Amino acid sequence: MPMSIIKNTAFYALVVVIVVCAVFPFYYAIITSFRTGSAIFTIEYWPTSFSVANYVNVIAAGSFARNLLNSIIVSACVVTLSLLMAVTAAFALSRVRFRGRSLLLLTILSVSMFPQIAVLAGLFEIIRLLGLYNTLGGLIFSYMIFTLPFTVWVLTTFMRDLPVEIEEAAIVDGATPWVIVTRVFLPLMWPALATTGLLAFIAAWNEFLFALTFTSSTETRTVPVTIALFTGSSAHEVPWGIVMAASVIVTVPLVVLVLIFQRKIISGLTAGGVKG
Amino acid sequence: MTTIRMQDLRKSFGTFDVIKGVDLEIEPGEFMVFVGPSGCGKSTLLRLVAGLEDITSGTLAFDEKIVNSLTPSQRGIAMVFQSYALYPHMTVYDNMAFGLKLAKGSADDVKRRVHKAAEMLQITDYLDRLPKQLSGGQRQRVAIGRAIVRDPKVFLFDEPLSNLDAALRVATRLEIAKLHAKMHETTMIYVTHDQVEAMTLADRICVLRDGNVEQVGTPLELYEKPQSIFVAGFIGSPKMNFLTEEFADAYKTDILGVRPEHLEIKDKDGLWKGKLLLAENLGSETFLYIDIGAKEPLVVRQDGSAHQQPGELLCVAPVNNNIHRFDQSGRPAAN
């Protein structure tokens, strides 16, 4: 009996430690964002004052709304394009037999091996060449480098596991490859699409290095860069209040997205199509 | 009414030949069953007819029109798969209507045909359910319904009963027999490894072995006049007894075949004598395994329950000289 109590206590203690480690930074960001003036610099673990002044300042200040919109546009485009390309590529890589298929699959995966900093200079030249420098297009293009390898890889493995008979039944029904992908496979792949789409969105939303390098004007920046470049009244002062408010604002969309899609991520849709 | 003609049909996967030159003609409206042990190429042959596999060489013609390079839907075939292969995210109605909608059928026409097929298979009550809410038997009916609505020229079945339990298998077999009676103008090909399904459903059976046609004929032809030891052993259950050496010599042949149901126990003067090893009593019939000194025990079928005990000495003889004689190569011996 005492043994199981100790075990239970230890288990929940561990859970508490993990939750605190994961949630505390965000919690502290929230309570700090509601403080103003010198209160920001006193260490208080409970909300002591409430003021939305930081939020008002952030939204009013310069181009933050514009930058938020940029982030949304870039991330949404990255997710849409990545999934579109990954689904079609996955169909070819999992269902069409051709020479060098596994080599191609490995090549795609190996692209994600390179650290961002290693490809930065080369990518900069390409983006300049394509005339995409300081445009959202340049960011969308460069983000595909890290979103495509894993979306293609995950969707290929997922599609490979879909029963061949369902595809053959669709062929007998007169479906073209495009119809098979869009009307038979896609509905079965929602869990995989939601998961990979969400990961791609988070990666694009948080990206900093490319966004910093490939943009030069405030109008084309995304939120992470904007937050990093916030300046206070003097060059040496970091405006923590505003930074925290902005951080909370950019985190909220991610939390909302995860909550919306969590059911899709969990659910398995293929049950019942084939035997069993 | 479609005639299917295969001429020297071949299929290889890499260097491995699966179908090694099949010549076969299937009559309009015929129910043809491909049967054979696993790995004999029966499913591959069906998939060649369906258009799911490319034909390596030879020609496949529907009504004199060569269809080698046509897609399955252009060929006008419908297929029922072993694992049902229903679309899991679509309702029963949508599963059945999918092909018709792709063929751009008018909404009224689609609805009418789906309901007609659903009534025929008694699945009207399930039309708005998802496949996962159905039992195995119901799923297979939906799969059959999906094939029927397309009003195919050729109807293909790939071991459709294999995933069902024994009782349901018999019931569904009956359904398929009824379906064939109703759609007597549609040519049907049915693949199975179960010889009972083959015997009960087929107009004609095609026995395949190692990618070659071993024999084609009506079920009774195959049962009464097997053209090889392979067919003789494959058709009939339990399988035919094969005797060699002194047993065969007495009948002036190399291999002597006698079916268990064509043997009877004699009180005395039996041709062969031996100890009873085992009696399998099924109530309606009993199978006796008798050691008469041949390589394998002789199987004898008796009506009703047997009263004999293992160890008992029994005399056996073929009824009415109902025997099959084969030469060394396994072909019927010339009389």
TrEMBL record, chain A:
Recorded superkingdom: Bacteria
Subcellular location: Cell membrane
Pfam families assigned to the protein according to its UniProt record, in alphabetical order: BPD_transp_1 (PF00528)
Residue span, ABC transmembrane type-1 domain: 68-261
Chain segments annotated as transmembrane: 12-31, 72-91, 103-124, 136-155, 184-205, 240-261
GO cellular component, one term: plasma membrane
Membrane topology label: Multi-pass membrane protein
Keywords, sorted A to Z: Cell membrane, Membrane, Transmembrane, Transmembrane helix, Transport
UniProt KW Acetylation keyword: no
Major localisation: membrane
UniProt-listed GO biological process terms: transmembrane transport
PANTHER family: INNER MEMBRANE ABC TRANSPORTER PERMEASE PROTEIN YCJP, MALTOSE TRANSPORT SYSTEM PERMEASE-RELATED
Family membership: Belongs to the binding-protein-dependent transport system permease family.
Protein name: Maltose ABC transporter membrane protein /trehalose ABC transporter membrane protein
Species lineage: Bacteria, Pseudomonadati, Pseudomonadota, Alphaproteobacteria, Hyphomicrobiales
From TrEMBL, chain B:
CDD domains from the UniProt entry: ABC_MalK_N
A molecular-function term among this protein's GO annotations: ABC-type maltose transporter activity
Residue intervals of the ABC transporter domain: 4-235
Origin species: Phyllobacterium bourgognense
InterPro entries hit by this protein: AAA+_ATPase, ABC_transporter-like_ATP-bd, ABC_transporter-like_CS, ABC_transpr_MalK-like, ABC_transpr_MalK/UgpC-like, Mo/tungstate-bd_C_term_dom, NA-bd_OB-fold, P-loop_NTPase
Gene3D superfamilies the UniProt entry points to: 2.40.50.100, Nucleic acid-binding proteins (2.40.50.140), P-loop containing nucleotide triphosphate hydrolases (3.40.50.300)
Record-level GO cellular component terms: ATP-binding cassette (ABC) transporter complex, substrate-binding subunit-containing; maltose transport complex
Protein name: Maltose ABC transporter ATP-binding protein /trehalose ABC transporter ATP-binding protein
Subcellular location as annotated: Cell inner membrane
Membrane-protein topology: Peripheral membrane protein
Family the UniProt entry places it in: Belongs to the ABC transporter superfamily.
PANTHER family, alphabetized: MALTODEXTRIN IMPORT ATP-BINDING PROTEIN MSMX, MALTOSE_MALTODEXTRIN IMPORT ATP-BINDING PROTEIN MALK
Pfam families: ABC_tran (PF00005), TOBE_2 (PF08402)
Keywords in alphabetical order: ATP-binding, Nucleotide-binding, Transport
Entry keyword annotation includes Cell membrane: no
